[in-house]
Specification:
alpha+beta
């Protein structure tokens, strides 16, 4: 009977050690933010999150980025019915929301190439204005579909 008791005692000890290891790893992961967002973006002292709205960035202002490794900067058009406006290119009228921000299945037209992005020690700087960007993009800087519509359509 003492052999059986010894085996049960050993099995219980092994199970407890495994549970203790799992709990320790879980706590370590929680405190070191292993599974959380490792990228922090700050502009003029304000932390920028995924659902941040209404950000106006002055040309040449530095945006701080804290990331564990390399990162890539992408700029996409965005808009809503409240902020929609129309503009004319080569005699054809376009809607910002329908033709630009609504392009690519609602993901918005990518404008990264028409801005000047300079990586810095703390993050990056974006230069250029929206007027300059639209002019460069629609004047041949971006792809056009049949009929001269901006890319994404």
């Amino acid at each position: 009977m003492s052999k059986t008791r010894s085996k049960v005692k050993t099995a219980v000890t092994v199970i407890l050690v495994i549970i203790l290891l799992i709990l320790s790893l879980g706590l370590l992961a929680r405190f070191t933010n292993v599974f959380g967002n490792k990228i922090a973006v700050t502009y003029n002292g304000t932390k920028i999150t995924k659902d941040f709205e209404g950000l106006e960035i002055d040309s040449g202002t530095e945006i701080e980025v804290k990331a564990p490794g390399e990162y890539e900067v992408k700029i996409y058009a965005e808009g809503s019915a409240e902020s929609d406006f129309s503009f004319t290119v080569d005699g054809r009228e376009y809607s910002w929301v329908e033709d630009i921000a609504g392009a690519n299945g609602g993901g918005g037209e990518e404008f990264t190439e028409v801005f000047e992005i300079e990586k810095t020690e703390k993050g990056f700087k974006i230069s250029g204005g929206i007027k300059k960007s639209i002019e460069r993009h629609l004047a041949g800087g971006g792809d056009r579909a049949a009929g001269g519509a901006p890319c994404g359509r």
